[in-house]
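Reply to thread "Modeling small-molecule complexes from scratch"

Following up on the discussion above, here's a worked example others can learn from. I took a protein sequence and the SMILES for flavin-adenine dinucleotide and predicted the complex. Inputs first:
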Amino acid sequence: MTRRTDDDRTRHRERLAEVRTGTVAAKVPYPIRIREMEVRGAQRIGAGLIRVTLGGEGHSGFESHSPDEHVKLIFPDEDGTLRLPVANGVMLDWPRPFPVSREYTVRRYDAGAGEIDLDIALHPGGLGSDWAQAVRPGERIHVAGPPGGLIVPHAYDRYLLAGDITALPAIARRLEELPRTVSGWAFVEVRDAAEEIPLAAPEDVEVRWLHRGDVPAGRSDLLERAVRAVPIPDGERLYVWIAGEATTVKPLRRWVKDDLGLGPDDSDVTGYWKRGVADFDEEHAGHEHAGHEHGHEHGHEHAHGDGHG
Ligand SMILES: Cc1cc2nc3c(=O)[nH]c(=O)nc-3n(C[C@H](O)[C@H](O)[C@H](O)COP(=O)(O)OP(=O)(O)OC[C@H]3O[C@@H](n4cnc5c(N)ncnc54)[C@H](O)[C@@H]3O)c2cc1C
């Protein structure tokens, strides 16, 4: 894993421009901030997601550059104590033990309105999921990050995007941001048609919703079967982005590496959650990561240098 330095974070705008105009994807670390935001509203987006809109003064200086960048929401401990990281240059110093937190994709940032949308998947027994269902306008929440973003240049011939409902916010945003002329595929596994949402995909990107029905989330092989069946034309440059339940995406990570022969320059495969594990953190789960490192501001007990300070 590459150690990120403060220096990288201070010249992030330059790096963003370099990667965007280059030919291969790269993770670009940004300066990491902590901010207090106000909940502006919460609404259902399809049957499976709640869109929480954050706003208020706290948005000032927020930066958003990549469809799969994430922020970390920080929650109080069980006894109600809120322990927050403190700014240290372009990094954050996190208290130990690490505060209760959950990660969500920046689905939309509207600098003019000063609003950030997070689309939060509903599932039983989840702190973040329960928070999204109960939250009311006016409540406040601390938001850390984003620590960086994966920048994928628009120089590829085709894009293959796949994931479950936790990856849907990133897929939806990437589809919106891709040039209208690109080709590819987007596969999204949901429970049923009620969980589908409108997607602004380029015309030549085939969007396929995969319905797992009564099979519990994280137990279906629909994504794997659909992705493996894609007819990839020889001689074209392909970018692959896959995220979802960790055990489900694991065979796909191997397929991308061994069968497609794509390395971290041209692919990113990430476990976003894991069955039976609260606040799953792939970076510290001890697997071999074929794609990019996350660049989290995540720290837990680990003193790694990719962003938490
Ligand atoms: C970079 C990144 C970006 C992410 N972006 C998003 C996003 O935009 N929207 C989003 O909803 N999630 C996203 N996730 C996934 C989200 O962080 C996890 O699903 C997280 O565990 C949810 O927290 P929770 O408090 O609801 O559940 P937890 O308290 O963490 O988990 C409680 C139990 O629920 C299970 N569980 C967790 N998530 C799900 C799920 N989706 N369906 C069924 N069971 C589940 C766990 O296995 C555990 O058994 C992202 C993760 C990463 C790493």
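What I'd highlight from this example: The longest strand covers residues 34-45. The first helix runs from residue 6 to 10. Questions welcome below.
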